């Protein structure tokens, strides 16, 4: 038997709910990854045991708690705010469910395939978490105008894109492989002559650094800024038996 729905409110569409979920999932996953990397430090590229469960588990638990508590402020997460929807109590749509019920509701995201199937089949547009926590998702009557929400969406995308680029560049430049590569470049007389003297390096090096079973390898493309001209340098490195980075090849 279906629960009665207040005719003065409107159920949130499945499209809006899925869009809100994807926005929230992207933002919260990024936050969890950021917390894990922050706990590892900037030199995690050089640590063969960087992803030791004992190190990252406490941070990941905090991250997942934040993920599951994403609707705890007035039943509205960032994604729901952007999409103009909100979680409410099924018995009284004017009330916001308690923190415990909102948390319980989101725990079912762990079985997200089941959640989507139930949402697609439910006439009330409820997913499994809604049914268990006795909640419902409605169009937010107090939602801001469309333009601020659209701008907020694009601001999130741009902010996280820029942060990702800055973060990768910062971590890469603090890796042992990059530091050894730069030292090798500064000892190379041919590069000094071609650039007219080295005055700096590009903001973000490209390439990759990996550690597998205690053995490291790196392939870096570094822009060398010179007094007369700039030069792109490719540096290939590996770690020795002591774990120290060594330049295998340096090419312009």
Features:
252 residues, 2 domains, Nuclear Transport Factor 2, Chain: A, two-stranded antiparallel ribbon, disordered N terminus, alpha+beta, single chain
Explain briefly what this protein structure is.
With 252 residues, this protein is α+β, with helices and mostly antiparallel strands. The protein has nine helices and seven strands; from the N terminus they run H-H-H-E-H-H-H-E-H-H-H-E-E-E-E-E. Strands 3, 4, 5, 6 and 7 form a five-stranded antiparallel sheet that branches. Strands 1-2 form a two-stranded antiparallel ribbon.
Structure in words:
Helix 1 packs antiparallel against helix 2. The chain is an alpha+beta fold and 252 residues long. The protein starts with 13 loop residues before the first helix and ends with a strand. The protein folds into two domains: 157 residues, no CATH class; 77 residues, Nuclear Transport Factor 2, Chain: A, CATH 3.10.450. Strands 3, 4, 5, 6 and 7 form a five-stranded antiparallel beta sheet that branches. The radius of gyration is 25 Å and the shape is elongated. Strand 5 and strand 6 form a beta hairpin.
């Amino acid at each position: 038997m279906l629960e009665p729905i207040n005719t003065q409110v409107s159920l949130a569409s499945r499209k809006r709910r899925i869009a809100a979920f994807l926005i929230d999932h992207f933002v919260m996953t990024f936050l969890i990854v950021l917390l894990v990397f922050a706990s590892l430090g900037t030199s995690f590229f050089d640590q063969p045991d960087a992803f030791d469960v004992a190190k990252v588990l406490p941070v990941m638990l905090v991250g997942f708690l934040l993920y599951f508590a994403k609707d705890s402020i007035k039943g509205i997460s960032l994604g729901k705010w952007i999409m103009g929807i909100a979680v409410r109590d099924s018995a009284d749509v004017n009330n916001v469910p308690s923190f415990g019920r909102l948390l319980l509701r989101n725990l079912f995201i762990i079985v997200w395939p089941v959640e989507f199937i139930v949402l697609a089949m439910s006439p009330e547009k409820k997913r499994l978490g809604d049914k268990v926590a006795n909640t419902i998702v409605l169009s937010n009557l107090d939602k801001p105008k469309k333009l601020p929400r659209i701008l907020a969406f694009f601001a999130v995308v741009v902010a996280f894109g820029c942060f990702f680029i800055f973060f990768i560049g910062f971590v890469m430049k603090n890796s042992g492989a990059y530091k050894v590569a730069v030292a090798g470049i500064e000892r190379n007389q041919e590069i000094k002559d071609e650039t007219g003297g080295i005055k700096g390096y590009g903001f973000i090096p490209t390439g990759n650094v990996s550690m597998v079973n205690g053995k490291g390898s790196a392939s870096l493309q570094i822009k060398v800024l010179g007094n007369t001209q700039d030069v792109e340098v490719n540096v290939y490195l590996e770690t020795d038996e002591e774990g120290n980075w060594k330049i295998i090849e340096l090419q312009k």
